[in-house]
Amino acid sequence: MAAKKHPIFDTATTLGKLVAFLGVSTICGVLVAGLMVPAVALAGTTTTSSISFFDDLPDEMTVGTPALSSKILAADGSVIATFYDQNRTEVALENISPFMKNAVIAVEDARYYEHGGIDTRGLIRAVTSMAQGGGRQGASTITQQYVNNVIIQTYAANGENDKIKLGSDKGIGEKVREIKLAISMEKKYSKDEILQGYLNWVLYANGNFGIESAASFYFGVHAKDLTLPQSALLAGVVNSPTVYDPVANPEAAVGRRNLVLAHMLDQGMIDQKQHDEAVASPIGLNIQENRLGCTTAVRAEYFCEYVTNLISNDPAYGKTVEDREKLLLQGGLAITTTLDPGLQDAAQAQLQNFTPMENNPDRVGQSLVTVQPGSGKILAMAQNTKLAPPEGQWKTDYNFNVDRLDANGNSLGGSGGFDVGSTIKPFTFAEWLNSGHKINEIVNASVRKYPAGFQWNNSCGSTGGIYDSNNPDAADDLQNAEEGWYRNLTAREGLYNSLNTATFATAAKLDICNIQKMMTATGIHNGEDPKQPYNLENVSSLLGSGEVAPVIMASAFATFASGGVHCDPIALVSISNAKGDKFPVPSANCKQTVKPEVAAGVNSVLGEVLVRGSGYQIPLQFKPADPLQYNSAAKTGTTNDSQQTWTTGYTKGLVTTSWVGSPEEKNRSNNGLLIANQRISYVDGATYAGKAWQGYMNQVAGFFDVSSFTPPPASMVNAPVTVAPQPAAPKPATPNSGGSDKPADEKPADNKDKKD
After folding, report:
1. Would you list the domain boundaries of the chain?
2. Which among 39, 113, 318, 680 is placed 20 to 30 Å from 568, CA to CA?
3. CATH of domain 88-280
């Protein structure tokens, strides 16, 4: 019978593995010993050289802030959206459940508060087990695991994944270095600081880094509120997040949980009753799916995208776009915005009455945007599409409400604005008053021909355009939406009835350069390029053949609502990181740009739009049956063939622009399209845009200032001149028409520079 071989010498492979293992173990043991006892107590050249090798290793480790989730918040602090590379929210140790702290110590490092970073007893146990043919046992302390997590996740956060080494990929040098770093960390930080860092850095499966994110994801609670069985479950996950994933492998997770509970019982952290009740409890998951980015925003996803574009475009948040995006994904930012959740939800709900996302076969675009006068704050920004809609619904990445580009040429994600129609007319009227003309001054609205030789006064450029049916190269004669208004009348009547001929009659007495300056003073600019002013090179632009973004129109009318103080529209209130460092946010730059009396004169006339003018169908009321109106003003707008339709209206406290049109085919008529479950032959600014504005403002305006506007000075009004009897207030030419705001031709007469 052959002699029985010693298992150690069964094969060369076994011997090789064992020798290698013992070599590593010896080195580690000697090096640890070198830190535990005076060097003079050690003898032998091997030991001395090992200690020298150990002393040469780096022993400083700077633990920076881990990659933290950033959140975009509404004005009330509620979360709109979350951004992260590593889903993590850092919390202090006192805000972590005592059960959680004890559970992770019980299962990962029972002698945590006794050792100095390296548990020599655990190390010897692991070596002995392997030498006797047992399975591999972990010997890493919480401190060592913390060091390992910091190294790995810092590389990951910096995009240096090629430097990450896991488990068996590590050489002797990496392992020994981690030992020394763990010991040095124990000298630099307290036990509680290390435990806090560990609990905030470690991975708990499903992309959840840190205990706060894990508690929220798995149970919908904060880390401080974790129960005993919940804490034991999560403490068990960290050993192997894939194996003990509570979602993918609930049985394995529960088994590991119960092992953790047994350790806690053995170590006197809990009593038998607590143990038994926890073991008997169900897993009890309450999964709260992680939301990443604006496509999963709780509300206002296009506003969310607008905010992220503001950050990624601004050098205040990093030298490069990559730096700014990294800050957003890893910087733990709290980005407080101007958005009012109540107004946003009301605006979004209102759109469902007209162009619901699930039933919009003609892809009619609709939006509502609200700006606060005197502050520039964007309080609501809604549109009838989604960034990631259910299959079959209309998808667009374009934000209907904002400019295409910012002042530096960076994308804001906007559609570039739309032809504004007659909503542009109040700015000619404002310059009329600013130039010394009177509200009730008589103008000749009978003039319909503006031939090629007509001299428009423009001191800073040139203005052309032909309206003359006798000229084959020109558009037809200038028209109003209805007959009966081609006569002498007051400038007031011309504006509230939205008469094209009256607008031209006033502009003919003004310097068009000054009209453009008035527009610029209120913030109006080209929707494609905000560095470019609203283009008045063709007189048709006085009737609205120029593209402006809805939020810019709201901001411009807010200048009148606030008594002539213009504020740039703003979306950001504050930005800070987890350390409390503050970042700058853009200012609204509020300043008096229009004379108060001019603003008062405009407000007084636009108030009549909702009483007897083009928007008489859409007055604001406290409630539908109440004849008492809010103090409000508005202007409707309709472009050629009803391609774009608008209402911008306001109280002292809120300005809202409502738009309905075709963002993808800007020249397509809205007439006959399916809107509000009907198809009608003529759509104007009051029909749907006005009704949406009315429904929304009736709901929210009363929560803000609805006091009376300051009246204009008597010297600006002038007594009306007696004129011939006037016809009754205009009525819609067709059912659901909003009145007389339809210009005959709102594109350049030569048709050469009409925009797509």
Report:
1. 8-56, 88-280
2. 318
3. 1.10.3810.10
